Amino acid sequence: MFKRVMVAVVGIPFLILVLGVAPEWATMVLVCGMCAVGAWELMHAVAGKAGQALTPLAVLSAALVPVCVYMELSIRYAKLTALPVLPLTGLLGTAMVLALFVVSIRRYGSERAVPFAAITAALFAGLVFPLMLSCLLRLRMVPSVGMLLVFLPLCISFGSDTFAFFAGLLFGKHKLTPVSPKKTVEGAVGGLIGGVIGTALMMAVGSCVLADAFWDFKLLALFGLVGSAVSQIGDLSFSVIKREFGVKDYGNLLPGHGGVLDRFDSVTFVAPFVWLILGMY
Hints:
- By secondary structure, this protein is an all-alpha fold.
- The protein folds into two domains: 1-144, no CATH class; 151-281, no CATH class.
- Helix content is 73%, strand content 0%.
- It has twelve helices and no strands.
- α5 packs antiparallel against α6 (116-133) and α10 (185-205) crosses α11 (217-245).
């Protein structure tokens, strides 16, 4: 518990500084690092010995996805108006798929043959995961209000995680799922409440610039509830992977929390949810 608290004491101000105060490129650098580390953690957890040859490709692709997103959005928001808008993420994805299968073709029939399961793991680690997490960068780069919107998925996720933990600790009696034996129904309900509270706190902080529509109580509550549900699904989704491959933690980068995937599993799911929903308004 002490390690978890200390990581939060140091990490939260760091996130506030990088995401909300520093220029947008700082968020890009942070997300690049998180994606690269997360891809490495996932490959080492699930790819197996035969699939480790794909790890460098997955890590490189994961690190480049936020760069492509940053460049595309910079051009779209007229910060680099002299350059044409290119589908950089699409080009990167195509190159990644080709590279993975080239490696697979070259190694086929040998002792170093790459199983298809490792290829799918590399695609998830190198493309799907970083595209989802890069929605934090997409939110940060929204003109005028990006420095506030980027914190919305974090508030929903962390609020949900925190309330779920304490609700389960104090009131938990009924097991939620075998995927995560320590999680309880009571904790899940507490998480839903935490998602609403996290959303409300974020909206209160950003009330001077965010749209008035989000102050409709029913809309705010629904947004927090659904966001928390998505957060919990994200947490359990990465837990399914760990259980299948017998992994306790994805890494040890964050003492008391595990690796990047252990701490930001729920954020990985909530960030696209927030970005898509806000894009509807």
